[in-house]
C-alpha cells in the first residue's frame, strides 16, 4: 500500500507555523518555570508528547480543508513509510539496549575498557570507554548511567577534577551516540533524508574522527592524578553482541536484521550463562520497547503535525526564508549554493535543539525542511543526514539543561554548567564541522 501524497502549496504561510511555535513555547516555558522552581530535570517535566497536543489541535483549526480531509492529512503524515520505519527501528534499538544491559553486556564492556587503561591516561581512557559503549548501545543517556558512577569513583581515588572527568564521559557518550548506527538520532536523520545508515556513518567519520582525536589530545594534556585500577573479571562473550552489531552495520547489512541478530545474541549470552531465562528475555525486550515510548509516539505526532504544516504552507515559508539567506550569501550556484544550504540546515537544527533540548526531536522537527533544501541545492542525502546529526549533537553537548548534562551533574553532585564547560568534544566538533562545511570540496 502506497503512502498518501501530501501536496506542497505553491506559497508559504507564516500563520501555518503557529502550531510549531505553540509546541516550542509550551515545552520551553514549562522547562523555564520548573527550572526557576529548582526542580531536577526541569525541561523534562512536561512530556513532549503532551506539549505537542495543543499544537496539533491548533493546526487542525487552521486547516482550510474539510475536517475529514484534515484528519486524513494528519494520519497520512503519521503513516508515512519513513515515520513507521523510524518507529520500528526505535523499538528494536530499545530492545537491544535493554537486553544487552540486563545480560551484563555493559558491565563486561566497562570491565574490558578499564583493564586496558594505563593509570596515567584515565581521562582519555574514560572518553574512549564511553565512546565505544555509546556507539554500540546507541544511547548517550544509557552510557552515562552505566559509566558515570565508575568514573566518579576513579576520579575521587585519583584526585582528578570531577567536572573534568564528567566532561570526558559526556564527550565520549556524545561522540558514540552521534556515530552509532542504532542511535535514535541516526535513525531520525537517515529516515528523514532517505539515505543508508552505513553511508551516513562514513560521512559522519569525516567530522567525528578529527574532532575525537583532538579531544583525546586535550584530555591527555589535561590529565591529572593516577590510580592503579583493581583488575576485574572480564567476560568476553558478553561483549560479542556489541562487536557484532558494529561490524554488521558498518558492513551494510539491513538495520532491521542487524538489530534482530543483536537482540538474539545478547539474549543468547544470558541464556548460556544459566542466570537468565526465556521469560525474562521476553520481559527485557518489552522493557526496551517501553523505554522508547516517548520518542516513538512523538515521532508519529510530529509526522502528522508536519504534514498539516506542509499542506498549509508553513514548511514552504521556512524554506523560502532560508532560500533568501542562501541567495544573499551565495550568489553563485554549485559548490557555493551547496555549502550555504548545509549551513542553513545546521543553523535550523541547532536553533531548534537549543529550544527543545533534545537532539532527536530537533532532527525529526526539521527533517522535512532540510530534505527540501538538500534537493534544491544538490546536497546528497547522506551529507544532509550527517549535517543534521552533527550539529544537533554539538548543541546537545553544550546545553546545561540537556538531559545528559543534568544526569552527569546529579551523579557527580556538581553543577550542569560545570559539566558542559569541560565537554570539550562538543566545542571541538563545532569548530571542525564548520571548517569542513566551508572548506570541503564538493563533487
What structural category arises from helix and sheet content? mainly alpha
Put simply, the count of helices is 21
The helix content, as a percent range, equals over 70%
Radius of gyration, CA atoms, in whole angstroms: 22 Å
- The ordered string of helix (H) and strand (E) elements is HHHHHHHHHHHHHHHHHHHHH
Described by strand count, sense and barrel closure, the largest sheet is: none
Give the total of beta strands: 0
Can you characterise this structure?
The chain is mostly helical and about 450 residues long. The protein has a domain at about 85-290. It is built from 21 helices and no strands. The chain has helices at about 20-35, 50-60, 65-80, 80-100, 105-115, 120-135, 140-160, 160-180, 185-195, 195-220, 240-250, 255-275, 280-290, 295-310, 315-330, 335-355, 360-375, 380-395, 405-410, 415-420, 425-440. α15 (about 315-330) packs across α17. The longest helix has 26 residues, at about 195-220. The two termini are about 35 Å apart.
Write the layout of secondary structure elements.
Layout: H1 18-36, H2 48-62, H3 67-78, H4 81-102, H5 105-116, H6 122-137, H7 140-158, H8 162-179, H9 184-193, H10 197-222, H11 240-251, H12 255-273, H13 278-291, H14 293-312, H15 314-329, H16 335-356, H17 359-377, H18 381-396, H19 403-412, H20 416-421, H21 424-439
Amino acid at each position: 500500500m502506497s503512502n498518501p501524497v501530501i501536496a506542497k502549496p505553491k506559497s508559504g504561510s507564516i500563520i501555518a507555523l503557529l502550531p510549531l511555535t505553540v509546541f516550542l513555547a509550551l515545552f520551553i516555558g514549562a522547562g523555564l518555570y520548573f527550572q526557576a522552581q529548582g526542580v531536577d530535570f526541569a525541561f523534562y517535566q512536561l512530556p513532549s508528547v503532551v506539549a505537542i497536543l495543543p499544537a496539533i489541535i491548533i493546526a487542525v483549526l487552521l486547516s482550510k480543508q474539510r475536517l475529514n480531509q484534515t484528519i486524513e492529512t494528519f494520519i497520512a503524515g503519521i503513516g508515512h513509510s519513513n515515520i513507521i520505519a523510524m518507529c520500528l527501528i526505535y523499538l528494536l534499538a530499545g530492545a537491544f539496549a535493554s537486553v544487552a544491559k540486563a545480560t551484563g553486556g555493559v558491565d563486561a564492556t566497562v570491565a574490558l575498557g578499564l583493564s586496558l587503561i594505563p593509570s596515567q591516561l584515565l581521562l582519555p581512557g574514560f572518553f574512549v570507554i564511553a565512546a565505544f559503549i555509546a556507539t554500540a548501545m546507541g544511547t548517550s543517556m544509557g552510557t552515562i548511567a552505566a559509566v558515570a558512577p565508575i568514573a566518579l569513583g576513579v576520579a575521587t581515588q585519583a584526585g582528578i577534577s570531577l567536572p573534568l572527568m564528567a566532561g570526558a564521559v559526556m564527550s565520549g557518550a556524545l561522540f558514540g551516540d552521534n556515530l552509532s548506527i542504532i542511535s535514535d538520532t541516526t535513525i531520525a536523520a537517515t529516515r528523514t533524508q532517505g539515505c543508508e545508515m552505513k553511508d551516513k556513518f562514513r560521512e559522519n567519520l569525516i567530522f567525528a574522527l578529527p574532532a575525537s582525536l583532538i579531544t583525546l589530545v586535550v584530555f591527555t594534556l589535561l590529565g591529572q592524578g593516577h590510580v592503579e585500577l583493581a583488575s576485574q573479571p572480564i567476560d568476553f562473550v558478553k561483549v560479542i553482541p556489541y562487536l557484532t552489531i558494529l561490524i554488521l552495520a558498518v558492513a551494510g547489512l539491513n538495520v532491521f536484521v542487524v538489530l534482530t541478530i543483536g537482540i538474539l545474541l545478547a539474549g543468547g549470552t544470558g541464556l548460556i550463562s544459566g542466570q537468565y531465562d526465556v521469560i525474562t528475555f521476553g520481559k527485557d525486550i518489552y522493557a526496551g520497547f517501553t523505554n522508547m515510548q516517548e520518542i516513538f509516539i512523538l515521532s508519529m505526532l510530529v509526522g502528522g503535525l508536519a504534514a498539516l504544516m506542509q499542506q498549509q504552507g508553513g514548511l514552504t515559508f521556512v524554506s523560502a526564508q532560508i532560500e533568501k539567506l542562501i541567495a544573499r550569501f551565495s550568489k553563485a550556484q554549485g559548490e557555493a549554493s551547496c555549502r550555504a544550504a548545509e549551513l542553513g540546515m545546521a543553523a535550523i537544527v541547532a536553533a531548534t535543539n537549543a529550544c527543545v533540548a533534545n537532539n532527536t526531536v530537533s532532527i525529526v522537527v526539521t527533517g522535512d525542511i532540510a530534505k527540501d533544501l538538500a534537493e534544491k541545492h544538490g546536497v546528497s542525502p547522506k551529507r544532509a543526514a550527517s549535517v543534521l546529526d552533527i550539529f544537533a549533537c554539538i548543541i546537545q553537548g553544550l546545553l546545561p539543561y540537556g538531559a545528559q548534562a543534568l544526569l552527569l551533574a546529579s551523579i557527580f553532585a556538581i553543577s550542569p554548567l560545570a559539566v558542559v564547560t569541560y565537554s570539550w568534544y562538543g566545542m571541538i566538533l563545532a569548530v571542525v564541522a564548520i571548517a569542513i562545511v566551508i572548506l570541503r570540496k564538493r563533487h
